[in-house]
């Protein structure tokens, strides 16, 4: 059975041991029929307990070091360390990393390459700010954020890209269906032109996804799932999003 939809949560800087475990245990009870991959990106100190508690749920990191080799990089977590504890994926280039930690394309390309080399699936996050959209630069900005994928992607790899317009993150302002459709069609075509059709391209939408708006988003062409922030922190709302993905996959 091939995965038709991906529903990934991004806990950001949230969670506590006890509530994480309860959340993962509730999510593990959902039968996704192997058509929907469910995962959560968690703060790095919660990776191991989350991996131990998770059943039918992928557990990944929210970030990975730009440095590949072990060494004197205080505070960093390498892709090899993520692989060692069994983390299955890592977010790369979330807009909050780009904004607060000044991560640029060269750094993100290194992180991506490190994840691929360690066998940890990278989920590349892209998206424009409101200012850039209003200046009609949304596609150009996203194209730039994707540009280095050409050299980073290996044959037959799964390329997961999450389109998260910055103005839709945590604001309750979800992008319109038309905006999502247009950008996802653009990203699909652009990534295809960069990496060729040997790779398995999967595009997620992120930004104020919730239980009420997700079904309409999942129905859009080239939307292969969602990257969910706030609504992934509560079992009920995240479970409803997963259920909608299962319906969309049928
Ligand atoms: O940033 C996000 C996921 O990575 C989206 O966050 P919200 O779903 O809270 O808008």
Automatic annotation (TrEMBL):
Reaction(s) this enzyme catalyzes, per UniProt: D-glyceraldehyde 3-phosphate = dihydroxyacetone phosphate
Catalytic site: 94 (electrophile), 164 (proton acceptor)
Pathway: Carbohydrate metabolism; erythritol degradation; Carbohydrate degradation; glycolysis; D-glyceraldehyde 3-phosphate from glycerone phosphate: step 1/1; Carbohydrate biosynthesis; gluconeogenesis
Enzyme class: isomerase
Location within or outside the cell: Cytoplasm
InterPro entries, sorted: Aldolase_TIM, TIM_sf, TrioseP_Isoase_bac/euk, Triosephosphate_isomerase, Triosephosphate_isomerase_AS
Single Gene Ontology MF annotation: triose-phosphate isomerase activity
Predominant subcellular localization, coarse grouping: cytoplasm
Amino-acid positions noted as binding substrate in the UniProt annotation, renumbered to this chain: 10-12, 170, 208, 229-230
Pfam family, one: TIM
UniProt EC number: 5.3.1.1
Sorted UniProt keywords: Cytoplasm, Gluconeogenesis, Glycolysis, Isomerase
PANTHER family, per database record: TRIOSEPHOSPHATE ISOMERASE
Similarity remark: Belongs to the triosephosphate isomerase family.
HAMAP family, sorted: TIM_B
Role of this protein: Involved in the gluconeogenesis. Catalyzes stereospecifically the conversion of dihydroxyacetone phosphate (DHAP) to D-glyceraldehyde-3-phosphate (G3P).
Assembly with partners or alone: Homodimer.
Protein name (record): Triosephosphate isomerase
Gene it is expressed from: tpiA
């Amino acid at each position: 059975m091939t995965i038709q939809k991906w529903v990934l949560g991004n806990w950001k800087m949230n969670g506590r041991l006890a509530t994480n475990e309860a959340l993962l245990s509730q999510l593990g009870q959902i039968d996704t029929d192997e058509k929907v991959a469910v995962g959560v990106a968690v703060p790095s100190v919660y990776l191991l307990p989350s991996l131990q508690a998770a059943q039918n749920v992928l557990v990944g990191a929210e970030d990975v070091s730009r440095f590949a080799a072990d060494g004197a990089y205080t505070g960093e977590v390498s892709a090899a360390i993520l692989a060692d504890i069994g983390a299955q994926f890592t977010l790369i280039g979330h807009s909050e990393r780009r904004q607060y930690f000044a991560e640029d394309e060269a750094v993100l390309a290194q992180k991506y390459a490190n994840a691929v080399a360690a066998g940890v699936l990278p989920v590349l996050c892209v998206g424009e700010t409101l200012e850039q959209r209003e200046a009609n630069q949304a596609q150009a900005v996203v194209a730039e954020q994707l540009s280095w994928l050409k050299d980073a992607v290996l044959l037959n790899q799964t390329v997961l890209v999450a389109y998260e317009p910055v103005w839709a993150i945590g604001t309750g302002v979800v992008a319109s269906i038309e905006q999502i459709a247009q950008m996802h069609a653009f990203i699909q075509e652009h990534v295809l032109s960069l990496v060729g059709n040997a790779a398995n391209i999967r595009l997620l939408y992120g930004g104020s996804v919730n239980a009420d708006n997700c079904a309409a988003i999942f129905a859009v062409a080239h939307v292969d799932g969602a990257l969910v922030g706030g609504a992934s922190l509560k079992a009920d709302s995240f479970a409803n999003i997963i259920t909608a993905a299962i319906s969309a996959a049928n």
